[in-house]
Design brief:
about 325 residues; alpha+beta; Uridine Diphospho-n-acetylenolpyruvylglucosamine Reductase, domain 2; Uridine Diphospho-n-acetylenolpyruvylglucosamine Reductase, domain 3; Uridine Diphospho-n-acetylenolpyruvylglucosamine Reductase, domain 1; 3 domains; five-stranded antiparallel beta sheet; four-stranded mixed beta sheet; 10 helices; binds flavin-adenine dinucleotide
């Protein structure tokens, strides 16, 4: 039975690999093996891979640059499809990019074409598809602000659809794609503005310097583990004695955003370590892999952080990273 499936998938997806270590495909450098692993270099190959997994009744996972995921240490008995369709075109102020196009390359090409709007995204790893999925954001800007249209494959009907920015329902670190699992992002159209090439470069440099100064970029990580508190902020009731102890909280509440890193730091968790997973000393919302961290270590650390922050501040932190399987 197993052999039959193996042969079938090989016939349907020439080039499919077996028993691939997922840690090699994530920026966290954590994760077990995938029974099957396929790199889809074109839109058609991406669609075929989905069709094959459906035909064989095989669970699948869509992987972009692997910079926002934590895979389980256990074997995934399905198919990981790595989105590697990387072509893009720039015309006037519009970038039309396939889902697998690396975001860092688009940021660089936008600058070279005197296009402004993506400067803030410098230093964010991964693909444009992954960025749109999670509405990647930094320095008060988000990718969703630039989206004109997203081409998707509806996995229920196998029809290709074009979603407007409004239909993508972008919110802070959120989009329709996080909720409707049947939507595979095939390509993205971004609209930027004409700008000054040198000024754009300067701004990028400034953002990159801030990242280097504030983020632990010398260790593997998946970026920020938790979302900052934004939409739920109106529901947050902080006790008076806490506001006295942590006066910055009042400013954060007034500005409408409490950074998760601030709460973790004030909970005294910088440097807290479980196995080789550690809360970064440099940025408390980063968990870094000191070498041989296991998924369990990271999950235990996440649970510990949530418990402690809840106990001290009464605030429930929510994960930003995608944990698979959940
Ligand atoms: C050092 C560092 C700094 C970071 N800084 C930031 C930051 O400033 N701001 C920020 O927002 N994030 C940041 N991140 C997190 C991460 O880089 C972004 O969220 C990035 O946009 C994820 O893209 P990806 O291609 O790596 O997605 P992946 O991690 O591969 O996937 C993330 C999710 O998207 C889904 N997905 C990917 N491609 C598709 C597709 N084509 N169709 C449907 N679903 C898809 C996956 O199934 C998964 O659920 C940082 C990460 C690191 C390591």
């Amino acid at each position: 039975m197993q052999r039959k499936k193996q042969q079938k998938i090989k016939n349907l997806l020439p080039g499919v690999k077996e028993n691939v270590s997922l840690k090699d495909y994530t920026t966290f450098k954590i994760g077990g093996k995938a029974k099957y692993f396929f790199v889809a270099k074109t839109k058609n190959k991406l669609i075929n891979a989905i069709k094959a997994s459906k035909q064989l009744n095989l669970p699948f996972f869509i992987l972009g640059g692997g910079s926002n995921v934590l895979f389980s240490d256990k074997e995934f008995k399905g198919l990981v499809i790595r989105v590697k369709n990387v072509k893009f075109k720039i015309k006037n102020c519009v970038i039309n990019a396939e889902a697998g196009a690396p975001l860092p390359l688009l940021v660089q090409k936008a600058q070279q074409n005197s296009l402004s709007g993506l400067e803030w995204a410098v230093g964010i790893p991964g693909t444009i598809g992954g960025a749109v999925y999670g509405n990647a954001s930094a320095f008060g800007k988000a990718i969703g602000d630039l989206v004109k249209q997203v081409e998707v494959l509806d996995l229920k009907t196998f029809k290709i659809k074009k979603l407007s920015k409004k239909e993508c329902q972008f919110k802070y670190k959120d989009s329709i794609f996080k909720h409707k699992k049947n939507l595979l992002i095939l390509s993205v159209i971004l609209r930027l503005k004409k700008g000054n090439k040198e000024k754009i470069k300067e701004n990028m440099k400034r953002f990159l310097t801030i990242r280097k100064e504030t983020q632990p970029l010398n260790y593997p990580s998946a970026g920020c583990i938790f979302k900052n508190l934004k939409s739920q902020i109106s529901k947050v009731k902080i006790k008076k004695n806490l506001l006295r102890k942590f006066p910055e909280l009042r400013d954060f509440i007034q500005k409408g955003e409490i950074p998760a890193g601030y709460l973790i730091d004030k909970a005294g968790l910088k440097g807290k370590r479980i196995g080789d997973a550690m809360v970064s000393e440099k940025h408390a919302n980063f968990i870094v892999n000191l070498g041989n961290a296991k998924t369990k270590d990271v999950q235990k650390l996440i649970a510990h952080i949530k418990k402690k922050v809840k106990k001290i501040f009464g605030i429930e932190l929510k994960e930003e990273i995608i944990i698979f399987p959940h």
